[in-house]
Q: What sequence folds into this?
């Protein structure tokens, strides 16, 4: 009985993380300021990745380092995609102010696709 209630709590947290990721994507795409778009896109990707990591039985990461290492254990392709998103959106655009409009738009499309893939993977029977 206790295990079922623990899984219900995890499932609820996963649902909230994914819903929040989708909300950040929607908010990001409304932004005219590329820096704000980039930051919201990065947050969306991070929330989706955290949901995936939790769904695979790992602890929720407390750092970028822990997030990347857990993601590598799940999928090297996901880890590489997430690294591009972090580098281009978060580091280059948001922090350094180097916001190439084409790169930001491409990465935002990557964030959306990445989040959709994670949502499908989490809802499939592959757990």
A:
């Amino acid at each position: 009985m206790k295990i079922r209630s623990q899984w219900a709590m995890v499932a609820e947290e996963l649902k909230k993380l994914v819903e929040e990721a989708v909300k950040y994507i929607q908010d990001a795409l409304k932004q005219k300021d590329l820096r704000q778009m980039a930051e919201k896109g990065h947050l969306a990707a991070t929330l989706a990745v955290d949901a995936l990591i939790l769904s695979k039985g790992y602890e929720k990461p407390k750092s970028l380092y822990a997030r990347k290492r857990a993601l590598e254990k799940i999928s090297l392709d996901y880890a590489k995609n997430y690294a591009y998103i972090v580098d281009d959106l978060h580091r280059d655009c948001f922090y350094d102010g180097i916001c190439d409009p084409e790169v930001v738009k491409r990465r935002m499309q990557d964030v959306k696709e990445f989040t959709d893939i994670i949502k499908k993977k989490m809802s499939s029977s592959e757990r």
Q: What stands out?
A: The mean pLDDT is 89. Residues 63 and 69 are 10 Å apart (CA to CA). The domain at 2-123 is CATH 1.20.120.330 (Four Helix Bundle (Hemerythrin (Met), subunit A)).
